[in-house]
Amino acid sequence: MDSPPRFRLTVVFWIGLALLVLGTGPLLLIVVAAELGLTSDPNPNRSAGLLAFFTFWPAVILIVWGLVAAVLRYRRQAG
After folding, report:
1. Integer Cα distance of 8 and 2 in angstroms
2. What is the pTM of this model?
3. Shortest CA distance to 56 belongs to which of 44, 68, 48, 45?
């Protein structure tokens, strides 16, 4: 008897997720630090904001692409 197929996320999804975390993580940390009063700069997100700006949409596109590919592969294997 064959076991049912397992749903596995693609490498593209994981790359997109890593890009999202690494691209927007620094900005989120700076914003949280500013809200907690740990930084004295009133506008602390210049370079981290650019990093988030240039990595957010490519990361979202890779995540969606990876999810769609994983679902299509799962449906094909399930038959």
Report:
1. 17
2. 0.84
3. 48
